[in-house]
Amino acid sequence: METEENFNASSQRSSSPESSSSSDFRRIRGRGRGRRRGRRPGGVRGRGVRGVRGVGARRRIKQEAAAERVAAAREQIDIQLRATIATLEEQTLRNLVGRICERDPTFVFDVLNEASQNERRQGYHPQPSDGVPSWCTCNHCREMPSEIEKLCCGQTPTNCFSIVPDFQRVVLDDLVLLVARRYREDIIAAAPDADLNRGNRHAAYRQFILWHHGHLGARNRWVIPSCCVWRIRDKFPDTFGQYRGFIGGRLG
Distance of CA 152 to CAs 54, 169, 178, 186, 245, Å? Predict the structure, then answer.
């Protein structure tokens, strides 16, 4: 009896779910060992992908080389064209521009823009030798581009604001203007003007107003006498004679 019971117990253990699952697990693991390595989905190996990338790089290099050849050819054509234009006479060039404008009316705007640029480059900066305007009494003023700017200091020639020693110390001194510019940049968190002469001109204008009228506040402006304006512009001129001029505010 004891031998029979032992036999039945061992048969039950062999047919248990745990033993069957372990055998299935062993069979599943055994299936993966026969698969090939190094292949990507779709049957493409890793070397093939690198080969495609290499072809793309070579194609890109060829395209860049072709673009460089085209750019070099265009540059050579441009050089030859400029050399040909340089041999033409002035009257021939004028006639040619006229015919181009007739053929393509939009070219007229390019001609007008170039003419305007030439006028701007000439600028407006009269010299003392050009004469004294009729509205000046100090004999140091010059003509101004607008009526509102035609203002004299109203003094005699020996007492003109622009020639008194204080004008040089307060308005034109480089160190004073440097401190004034830096103080203003710090107060309003403004970047320094890239054009040093322009920055000094504007600082000198503010120094004169502060000297004669005190603090005016934002958007409150007074016209500076012509004699003082041109004294400032003579020391800090614009290369092309381009000056902003007076812009009115609440007081002007």
Answer: 78, 21, 28, 34, 15
